[in-house]
Automatic annotation (TrEMBL):
It comes from the Bacteria. The lineage of its organism: Bacteria, Pseudomonadati, Campylobacterota, Epsilonproteobacteria, Campylobacterales. This is YtkA-like domain-containing protein.
Amino acid sequence: MCILYNNDLNTKLTVLSPDKTSIDYKGANTNKNGEYVFNVNLPQKGSYNYILTFSHNVGVTQTKRGSFNLN
């Protein structure tokens, strides 16, 4: 879980599927305490990796990486 405390960040979620295809999603701001929503479609079961990138207009870009399994 990643909590972002700003409501004006540029956010992008990159998902790497089991067949090594890269899919990018742009985050939508919910205006609720820095919560962002990504509408993600995962077409196949398996092990996924992800990279969450977020930045402020005048700040440094931050990244969070991880993985998960879809059964």
